[in-house]
């Protein structure tokens, strides 16, 4: 796998984390317990940090990046992914915060300073513009993303199930099943 240092900082992976050999991770990146990174993911923690919480997964072809600190934005925009998050194939997350139990649909784009609160589904192909907050408990779709409707109990339960399914799959890949 391509785990590369940048400016003397090397990604840190929990013992139970999984990174596919075709993925590439640079710099200040932390993966917590049971997190998984799937084929062809590119993650650059070169000018700020990336954190991926426990049991979260980032699926094939996704791009993860951050925004540099500056005089006008002293903290820049790190990328923070909470726990039990499923990031669908080919998503692009840039300097945003994704809280817990979130499903980011395939091909979705989430930009600088955006915040997705707990228990949200972001539909495939949706665009979350810079600085927008998606409130907990809703489905969001479109470009720009708009609140479509409240999530039902089955959808809310699915968020943790999706993350658990990827923990099981990464264990199979690691030969621990």
From TrEMBL:
Keywords: Transferase
Pfam families reported for this sequence: Hexapep (PF00132)
InterPro entries (alphabetical): Hexapep (IPR001451), LbH_gamma_CA-like (IPR047324), Transf_Hexapept/Carb_Anhydrase (IPR050484), Trimer_LpxA-like_sf (IPR011004)
The keyword Transferase belongs to this UniProt entry's keyword annotation: yes
Leader sequence residues: none
Protein's organism: Ferrimonas sediminum
Protein name: Carbonic anhydrase or acetyltransferase, isoleucine patch superfamily
GO molecular function: transferase activity
